[in-house]
Structure formats: structure tokens, C-alpha cells
Amino acid sequence: MAATEVTPLFSTTHPFHPPPSTTDPRLPLFHFLEGRSPLGLRYERFTIALIFLSVSTFIASSLFLPYNSDWKHHDSCGRTCDAIWFGNYENALSVLGLGNTSLVELLCVGVFTVDYAARFYTADLIHPKYGGCGGRLRFVVSFFSLVDLASTVPFYVDAFVFRETDWMASNFVRMFRLLRMMKVEGRYDLALGMVDDVVYGQRGIIAVALFVGVTVWGVMSSFFYLAERLNPSMIYCGAAPAYCLENQTSIDTSLCEIDSWGVVDCTAAGCPPTSDYHEPCWNVYRSIVSSSFWTLMELFGEFPLVSQHSVGGQLLGTITAVFACAVFALPAGIFGSGFESEIAKRRQDKSCIMEGSESSGFVEVQSIHHDVVGDPSTLRGSLYNFLHLQTTTLSTLFEIFMNGFIVGTTVVFMMSTVTSSNALARLHGSFRLFQLIAVMLFSLEYILLMYSATENPKCRGRGGMVAYAQDFFRTVDLLSILPYWIMVILSPILPNKHIALLNFAEFCLILRLFRFEKYSQAFRTFDDVIRDNLDVLTVTGFSAVLLWILFSSILYLTERNNPDEEMANHYKTVPNAMWITLLNLSGECPLAYYSSVGKIIVGIIGLFATAIFGVPIGVLGAGFEEIVTSQNEDAPDGEAGVDSSSFESPSANSFQVACYEFVNGMGSKSAYYFEVSIYVLIGATVTIGVIQTIDGYGDAFSPVELIAVIVFTVEYVMRFVGVGADPEFANESHGILKRLKFVISFYSVVDLMAIVPYYVAAAMPGSWVDQHDEYFRMLRLLRLLKLDKYVPSITLIDDVIRLKRRVLVVSCFAAATLWILFAGLMYLAEHQDHSMGIDNLPLYGCYENCSMSVRYENMFTSIPLTGIHLTGDFPMIEYDGFGRIILFFVVIAAVGVVAIPSGVIASGFSEIVNSKHRSTDNNQGNNAGDDWFDIKYRQLEGCPAPHSAFGFTVDSWQYSVKAYLDGKVDEGTGKHYRTPFSKVGRAFFFVLIVTNVLAIILESVPEIDRSVGNEKGNFFDVFEAWSVFFFTIDYILRLFSARKSREALYSPWVYATTFFGIVDLLTVAPWYIQMLLSSMGRMNGDEAKVFRIFRIFRVLQLEDFLVAFSKLDNVYRASKDVLKATGLMAIIIWVGSSALFFLFEQNNPNFRECDDSVPVVGTEMHPGCYDFESTMECNEFYPGMCSQSAFINMPNAMFYVAVFLGGEWGVVDFTWQGKLVCMFLCIAGIALYSIPVGTLFDSFGAVVGLSEEEEDEETEK
């Protein structure tokens, strides 16, 4: 059992080992240092303040450096200011000969030096093991001692040893002093301390998941390298030397060439290599090593180069987004669930400790109670009854009237932000009048509520009125109207700020949306969440802040001098670095061209730090969901349905029954095969519909489409005829009514929309239907919905909504309110933000010098962009300070809350699918995911291996080979062991596998590959030949000994067709195929590289040392019922959204690119790039000079949408129709699409966990 930390979260009793003598004169000093005396407590608070002062001055110091000249206040801190706070330059303290320093730094170093000396002096009082000289050495290398030394020693080294250098000792090391905060409680911080508990408790599963993740990373990196190594769009010149830009503003990478080794030559683009710069521009996928960073980003769900991938890269990107990301996320998912379990365990322990206590120390104050009735004979009493108790119909109508005004002010504010519409512009005066009336009404209501509240005795007197004024609703009322009246007062005084003040005042009016809280009670649960999780939030929040500042500081140092100007600008100050690092820690990576050290740091952040940083965010979201769910339990509706298996229609004749059974695969093998053919045709026609959107393939596979239409027509007719036997329409007694109901049913409409346009276009060529053929072709994709008949998925959504309706109402109100409020705040922050440039947005009327103000032009454009951020993605980072502050709160709190409705839908879907399949589960007595192999394997337990047909000698050889390959079992103890020869062989193949993987990686590096050469007999070829020889021998031996291997079910064929046999074959077969094709002269260099890259699959042979991938099929089977339904739904959402994005965005000028010779905007005679309605029209006028970068066809759209559904929005500047699709994906699509991934997480843990238990049991035996 894992050891669990049981130290109370805010313990005032510190671990203390008393010294041998209680009269030790050092004891008062020790108590002072540990904060156990009144003076010590003051010193503790002083050190905390000093730490924060030191770190704050480090963060602020970067704002006043000379290269930060674009900040208008960069020179506002003179020599005296610098001497006091920062120490950036030579100042008055330079006379001390200590280099650039400050009074703050001298104070901190002095205090912490004395503190360390005192702690060193009393170290044996902390623990007896620190006694004596040896003990003091152990103390020096302890964690907190190293923290103290790291935060002070560099100052002395910089000041007295390396006087002429600047080690940043007076700045950067200040950041380490935050770690001293962990000493305040006398123990490690909870979040960091829980890591060992989580790792230990999940050690087996994490090890397996890590092996799976690393293997997927290596394999995908190799294939991305293969696909993109010659892609000119992946050539990077952002860090090119100055001579490349002497005669041009940018380098045209399309003119660059990539040789057979993968080296880029941009001489034709004006950037030739020199002796100092051998490759000034390079392909970011030039080797597997460089490819691994970009692949890692994509496995995190980030696609920073989404628009630059080749067709092969897009295919791999789609596979990554759909499958590989889910597999790679297993370690993080398991680690995260381990953290949640630990937090839940600690919360349960805490609740057990607090049981029996009279009070938790928190009192829920409610300022008004409805158990008091006002005196109707007085004005105050009547108002109290009318406004507070709402006992009459008139008061209810007044409440509805005021709620209408709340909704009205929200709508009016949104419409008033639209300035591009002339019709709405003429109504702005009416909008202002409506808002004025609303403010007056709201103000009058607030005054009357405050006045009448004193009718209640609890609200009388100053204390009672103050308590009532602090009520949630009264606070909302005041905050919604007070800014408006302040604006009225200040506008004459500050005429230049009138518009800004008016916009803010109008925005505050929509705060009254919180008044609807009385119907949902969603937001008032926040204080419950914070109160219940205050301890966890405090310490994990501190860990998150510590990680944030730590990684921000490191990346500031590594990237502020990045040769890429854009990267350097984002890290030129610590506050700037903190903005980007905040996004990194939330799981985002909006920038990518890091230095080598920066790439390592970002990789560490993505692999480890995000899990810890996300704990407090997850606690907030999970706590909110838990309380909302517990307070709004839903009772599932009774299932109303007809049991089709027992239904017999009295009016159906035998022909109708035969038709019904045939199309539903019942009654005969021919019916079964017909149903299967429908599955195949649906898949084929959907694939054809996708392919036909590619230029040049518009009429491809037309005969197959014709056959499919005929078959679907026959199927529809048979369903129409067999309606009488269909239990779904059993309630209708008349045959005509049954058929009419069938025709307007969901599946019938889907069938008709998929086949009727084909006949109309064929019957009336040139008609409106034929002219809009591309739109009607997309209707063929609706055939995917036909599969819902066989695997219910989309039709279960209404069941989910009924099951979770109460929780959905509450959580959707919270999510929608936060969405609108943050959209409004982002509009206020960014609609006048011209600080940073972005790409041109011609669709929005901006052709040059565009900024975020174009994207946030009004509330309607702000809503979808804010929705993207609320899904946790930040594709846009060009925000000013106010916008960054708002998005900080989006990251910390809003993302978790807004995601709750999606999570509720996902959990409800899983519940319903599982409940529908639980009764049909016949896998009793077996483990999760068992198949025929696992069942047969257990049946063979204790059964002897069959004898060889070639006699006893061959038997003995097979047993010997089996013992060499897999070891022996001691007949006496039953324990598994290996002979020395077997151990040597196992170690040899382990080394051989690892060195083969390293050889593949090294061979991909152009410099190494070129130095080795391609001549026959080179090192890599010889090493490969010998490797194949040994792997072939191993494969033959395993086939030979399979008759004695229970793992192969005593069958060579079973071994050859299992995971291990296929992997063993893959390790050698490509080499033999390559040799055969080379001998026939049918192999060029690139084709040979493809076969060499396939050697990366040898890493899968490590499965022999750690079982992982061979269990993935069990994982699938353990969750196949949910995966079938949710997988179909995910495919429908993916393909359907792709089709909509393709239709709406294929001619979006925001994604259009033209040759430099084509004007951006032209005249009527010579139109420009963005003057054409479509890219095709542009190419007709300027042949071959116009192109679309995104959504050019369905495969391309499916790649982008796969990325979107993974939570990464590679592009965001859509048309208004595309924004509606975007909002759908933000609200529900991403959550529904991710259900299969969550199911895989659960099943992986179950299957691997059972495997570990079985191994442990075998070990114990």
C-alpha cells in the first residue's frame, strides 16, 4: 500500500526532535527560526514579505532594461530608483565594487545569509541525523539548504569571484527564493508531496503508459520526418543572419532547394550558406531529432504548423489528432486521475477528522428571510411583500417584467457594439434611451428593495442594513447601476474618456444576468467549493504559482535573445514571458521556434508541469460540478419503447414482414449479407464524397455512386413496404398513416436527402440542383446517419438530455453567463487595441496593419473567439495587458466551469450506453477485454505441450530453445527464472533493439548521414545487415519453439499472427523487401529511406520486456460497446463539421494567398486578390497565382476539424456561418467527440491493472 502523507494542511505543530538537553542554549534561536515564538512568528512574516519583494523586483526589473524601449515607461526608473529596487545598471551602489546590485538585493542576501548560518548552526535540532561534521554535510545537501544556497551563493560568486561578468545573480536567483515559502509550514508543499504518492500508487500503469507514449512519440516522429523532410513549406528562416535580409524584407522559401541529404540551400532566395552559417535556413523536420519536438507538440494536441503540412503530413496529423493523441495522453490522464484520487482521499480523511466538531468556522449569512410577512397597512410593509415575498400575481408579473429588461439590456448592449451596420447605427440613439430607462428602473428597484428590507427585524439598524447590502443579489444590483451614474458624473470632467466610460457602464448592466441565479443557484456554490477545498486550493495554488514564475524566469533567460525576432519579443520581459508560460502551463503552445534549451523546457512543461499546474483548476471545476450535480439529482425517465423482438403486427401480411426482416438483417443469411452490404456502401459512398471534393476527382467512382443510389433506393422502397411490420409505427392502425409517419420520420428524411438530389440532377441537367451540385453532394455524407439505426448514437442525445436535464440547466446557465460576461470584457479590452499586428483579414475589411481590434469589432465577433478560449485553447496571443488579465481568469476559473455542461453530456452518454449494454454482457467470469486468446490461454493452464511429430530429439530442442527465449519454471517452487545463457541473450537483444533505434535516429541527421555516405558497405548498412541476421534467427527460433509455448497456444501459426509475431516479422521483412527491390533496380534513394524508417518498429520488440501494446486490443474489447456508439457519433461530428467548414470556408478570403504580382485590392478592370468571390474565379483571372491555405477540399477540412476537435484551433477567422459551426464545437462537439478517449482511459487502467494483479499473484505463488 502506498505511503500517504498525513501532515495536516495547516498544522501549527512542526516535526521536532528534541535535543539531548532541554537546556541547550541554541533552543531559543531554533524556536525563533522555526516561528515558534512571538518574535519568531514576526520574523517568519518578515521573511515571507522579503521573498515576495525580492521576486517582485526581479519580475519588474525586466521592464526597465534598455532593450525594452517600446514600453513607454522603460526609462522612468533613474539611477536612484535602480539602486533601491533593481540593480540593472551602474548606480550609486557601484562604489561598493559588487557589480550591478540594489538595496533590496543587499537586504535579502544579508538576511538570508545570516538565516542560513543560524540554521546551519542549529541543524542537529531539526533532526539528530544532522549532528556532527558528517551530519552537517547531509544538511548542506538537503532540499531547503540547497534552495537557500542557490538563492545567495551566486551573488557572492558574481560579486567577489567573477567581477567582470554578470551571472544574473542579482536578478534571476531571486526567483529561487519562492521555494523557501515551502519551509513556512515546515514540510514539503502538498501538491509536490503528493507526486510520490501518485507515482507509487499508479507505478505499474504509469510505467506501461509511459512506454506506450514514448513509443508512439518515436514512431510518429519518424513518420513525420519522412513526410515533411522535403516539404519546402517547412523551411524556416526566422533566425537567418542579417546578410540574408540586406536586399529584401523576407526570404522566399519557395526558391530554396533541399538536397538528398535533407540540407536546405537558399542561394536562389538570396540567403546562401557561408563558412560561418552552413545552413542559414533549414527544414524543421530535417531529422528525427528535430521532428521529435514538433511531433511532441502535436501529441500534446498543439499544431503550431497546421497550415504548412504537406498532404502526407496532413494525413499523419489527422491520425495523430484522432488516435495518437489519445494513446500519448494515457500517462498524463492516468497521472491526473491519480491526483484526483489522492485529493479525494485527503478530503475524505479531512471530513472524518472534522466529524463531531460543532462548527467548521464558517457561517453562511443570509440577510433576508422570507418567514417574515410585512405589515400591509404601511408602505414599507406593502413594498416588502411585493418585492421580497412576491405573494401576488402582480408581483410575479413585475418580476417577469424586470427579467425582460435584464435580457433586453444584454441584447441591446450586444447590438450597440455593432458599428459596421448602417441599420443598427441608426438605432444607437434608441439603444441609449432603452439603457437609460433600464438604469432608472433598476435604480428605483434597488432603492425600494433597500428601503423595504428594514421591515424584516434582521435588517434593521446599521449592521442589518450593511449585511443586507452585502447580499449576493443586492451586490449585483449595485454593481450593475453604479458605474452608469459614475459615468454620468465624470463624463463632463473627462470628455476624452466619455466613450470608454459609457461602454463600461453599459457592459455593467449585463451583470444583472446574475439575478437569474435565484432560479439556478449556480454561482453561489462557488463559495462552497472554495470553502470545502480551501486547504487543497491554497497549497496546490501556491505550487502552480511557483511553477509559473519558475518556468517564466527560465524561458525569459533562454528566449529573450532568441534570433527569431518574434520569439524574442514575446520573452523580452518577465511579465511577457509569464503570459506565454501561463498558456504553456494550461496545456497550450502558441509559439514554437524555441532555442534548443527552450524546447527542452517546453517539453518538460508539457509532460509534467501541466499536471501539477492543473490541479487547482481541476479542483475548482470538479468541486463546482460535484456540488451542482449533488444539488440537482435527476431521476432517469422510464424508457418508453416497444420490444421489437416480441412485437407482431396484426395488420402486416407476410410480404411486409419479409421486407421488414430482410432490410433489418433478420431471418436469413441473405438478409444478414444485405445489411452488411449497406454498411460497406455507406462507408464507400462517404469516402467517395470526400474524394470527389479534390480537384480532378469530381467524377471519380461515379459508377459506384450509381450502384449505391440504386441499392439505397431499393432499401428505401423495401422499408416503405415493410412499415406495417415495423414496431416503431405500431401505434398507427391505418396503413396510410403508418407510411405517412414513416416518410416524415428521421431516418426516412435522411434516406431521401441522400438519394433524391441524384435523381433530380440526372433528370434535369442544368437545373438549380445541378448548378449547386457541390452542396448536394455533401448531402451524401448524411448516409452516415443511417448507421445510427444499427448502432444508436445521435438518437441517444435526447435520452442524455432527459437524464441530466436539471444539472444541464444549472451548469448551462453558469457557462452561458460566464461566456457572455467574458465576451463582453474581451470586447471592452480589445476593440480599441492596436498595440500588436496580426495577419490581414480581408473578410473583415482589413487589408493591412490589422490588429486585434478587427477581430473584436463587436460582441458578436467576440463571442466565438471567447468561446474558443473557454475551451482552453489560445491560438491568438496578441493581447494587451487588460486582455491578458481577463484571460488569466479565463484560464484559472472559467475554463473548468464552462466545460461542466460538456462533461455532464459526456458522462450521461456513457451511462446510457453502458446501461443499454449491461444486460447483454455475457462475458461473466472473464476479465475486462478478454477475447478468445485470453480464454484459451487460461484453459491451457496445466496442460502439457504437444509432442513433436519428428520425435523426442526435436521435442528436447524445442524445450531448450523455449528455455533460452523465455526462461524456465522451477517445478518445486513454481517460480520463473532464467539461465545465465538466457539472461545474456535477453540483455543482448535489449541492447540490439535500443542501438537499432539510435541508429535510425542518427542516420536521419543530415550531417551524420552525409559523413557516413551511401556507398555499399557503409557503417549503417553493415550494422543493419547484422541486426537483421540476429532478428531473423530470433524469429525462426520463436517459430520453432512455439509448439512448446503456452503464450503461443502451442501453435506456430498463432504466434505468427499475434502481436509479438507480427512485430518480430516487421523487424526483418522490410529489409528483405528492400534488398529484393534493389537487386531488381526498382529502388531509389527516397524509397529506400521509407524502408529504413520502418525499422523504427523494432522499438515494439521492447514489448517483450514490458507488456503494453499487446493489451490494446483488450482495451478496445473492454469498452467496445461504448466505443461503437460514441465512436460513430464522433465520426458523424467529425465528418459533418468538416463538410460544413468546407462549404462555408473554401472561399474565405482570410485563407486566400496570391502571388506578389497580384494586387491585394484592385479596380473593376483589374481586380485584386480579395475582390473575387471564390479562389477559382481568382485563378481564372490570374492563372495559377491564387491559392487557398485551408479547407480547400474535404480531406483538408477533415484534417483541420480533427485538430479542432482535439481542442486546438489552428485558424479562427471564419465566416459567420463558420463561426456558428465553431460555436457548436465549443459548446458540445468537442466534448461528445472526446467521449471515446475517456472510455479508453478507463479501460486501459482496468485491463493493465488486472494484468498487474495477475502477475503479482503469480509472483507470490
From TrEMBL:
Q: Does the keyword Transport apply?
A: yes
Pfam families per the UniProt record, alphabetical: Ion_trans (PF00520)
Annotated GO molecular function terms are: potassium channel activity
Chief place of localization: membrane
Question: The Ion transport domain covers which part of the protein?
Answer: 44-343, 396-628, 672-914, 988-1245
> Per the UniProt record, which residue ranges are transmembrane?
46-65, 95-118, 139-157, 204-226, 400-419, 431-451, 472-493, 499-515, 536-557, 601-624, 671-691, 742-761, 807-829, 885-909, 984-1002, 1022-1041, 1053-1073, 1122-1144, 1221-1241
Positions of region (Disordered): 1-21
Kindly list the places in or outside the cell where this protein is found, as annotated in its UniProt entry: Membrane
Q: Name one GO cellular component term.
A: membrane
Q: Which domain of life is it from?
A: Eukaryota
| Classification via PANTHER family | POTASSIUM VOLTAGE-GATED CHANNEL PROTEIN SHAB, VOLTAGE-GATED POTASSIUM CHANNEL
Supply the name of the protein. Ion transport domain-containing protein
